[in-house]
Each structure stands twice: as C-alpha cells, then as structure tokens.
Amino acid sequence: MSDPRHVKVLIIGSGPAGYTAAVYASRAMLEPVLIQGIEPGGQLTTTTEVENWPGDSEVQGPDLMVRMEEHARAMGTEIVSDIITDLDLSERPFTATADSGAVYKADAVILATGARAKWLGIPSEEKFKGFGVSACATCDGFFYRGQEIVVIGGGNTAVEEALFLTNFASKVTLVHRRNELRAEKILIDRLMKNPKIEPLWHHVLEEVVGTDSPLGVESVKVRHVDTGVVSEIPTKGVFVAIGHAPSNELVIDQLETHMGGYVVTQPDSTATSIPGVFAAGDLTDHKYRQAVTSAGMGCMAALEAERFLAENE
Fold this sequence. Notes:
The chain has 2 domains: 5-116 and 244-311, FAD/NAD(P)-binding domain (3-Layer(bba) Sandwich); 119-240, FAD/NAD(P)-binding domain (3-Layer(bba) Sandwich), CATH 3.50.50.60. The model has no long low-confidence stretch (mean pLDDT 95). The chain contains 7 helices and 21 strands. Helices cover 24% and strands 30% of the residues. By secondary structure, the protein is an alpha/beta fold. The longest helix is centred in the C-terminal third of the chain and has 21 residues, at 291-311. A hairpin with an 8-residue loop joins strand 3 and strand 4.
C-alpha cells in the first residue's frame, strides 16, 4: 500500500455525473482526481443510439462518453484508471483505497458510481450467464445474427434492448409479466410497429434450458402469471432487461439510503447524510435515471463541494 495522497476533491465514478462534476470542479480550481471504476464511462458505453442528449439529435453512447472524458481532461482533471475498493467516511479527510493499492485522503468526495443491471436470481440464469444469458444487448447482440432471441422485461431498458436486437435477430420475443409496457410512449410505438418483435404478456421466466457441454442456451420455460401454465420457447439468447440497482457497495453501511439502496440526498441538493460527501447520478436518482439529469447532478455536486470546502477551509 502506498503513502496516502491528499486531494481536495475525489470523484468516484465516470459516467455523465462523474465527468460533469470533474469539469465543474476543475473550473473551480479544486484539482479533482477522478477514479473511473470498473466500467469507465458508465452505462452509456453499452448503449448505441442516444436520441435525448441536448445538442445531438443522435449520438453513439460510447462516443459521447469519450467526448466527456476528453472535456474533463482538457479542464485539468486527473483521470485514473483504477477501482476504489474501500471508502472510509468516518472522519474527514475521507480515506479511499484503490485496487492498485493507492490511498487517497480527500477533503470532499463526490460519489457517481451509477447503477448496474438487475438479475432475476434464478439458478439457471446464473448458470448460463455469458453462455447465452446476457444483460447487455449492445455487448452481445452480434453473436445472435439470424437467430430467435428472448428479452425479459417491460420498461425502457427492455424495449430499447428488444429494438436494438432486431438488427441481428430473426425474431425477438419480449416476455413481460403485465399486459402493458412501462416504457416511454415513443419507444412503445416503435416496438409495436416492428414486425420482428412479438410481445408475450402475463408471463415470467421460469427456467433457462440448455446444454452442459458446451454450455449453451436452447430454450426458455415461461410461466403464465394467472394460470400457472408453463410453456417453452426455443431461443439461443436470453437478455434480462428488468432495470438497474444502485452501485452502493462502498457506502451502503455508511450513508442513509432508501428505495432499495439509493443514496439519500438533501432536498434540492446532492449533499448526503455525511457533510462533505455528495452523491450524483443513478446512485441517488431512483426517479429519472437519465444521462442529462445525471450530468445536472454532477454539476450540482461540484458546486456544492466547492462551497463546502470554502466554508470549511
């Protein structure tokens, strides 16, 4: 373990919230250090077309995140490709330990660790993860060209995944436990008009069926939520798209959380239950979960960190 390094502002996470916080903190001459984490760029790096980012009628998610990173660097942010594995918020300066062994002592911390895909938690899902079961269509859709695919879910994530997968699949069956989707109307309209997509209402995934040697998916068993009748759908790929959960492992036992683990912030603020610790983006936002709102919260966090440091110099 290396000698601790003192920093004014430590930003943990590198999605829209983290990079925007970095830009504003740099402009405030706070010399921020940003630790990118296990998925540099966050969820947008696994998204293709982004159509709701202001100023771009359409932009590729990975390209947008590259531009954000470049912007943060240009402003003077030090960006480190590492993972924070331990964060001690019991006293100030706060102590963060990285996977590389680096230790940071931070006067203020901005948490922008985002969220990660949720899983159903059934044994067969776990068994075939990476071998026909995925939570990222943009990562794995290419492998199912000309084949029939199943998507599980009914929100924006599921509809976006299903629409994207039609670029490769011969057919996409969307399995949803209700009889209507919870996605944005424009996305639902596109899905219902797409001849490759067939919704299967009132069903849930019961089991993923496949071979053991080599590991591979052959079909799924789905159960009707009302009748209990189980049917089988042939498929080579299963994409679980049931939303995301906040990546709160570093702070779950230290900060106040609610709504299934989202970090609580003060009204109209990014300040958490510990002074000097700020949270932005999907780690705290259980309502909107949009790139643009994450970026806005990143701005807020940096401005609030600047004010906090000025008042506690």
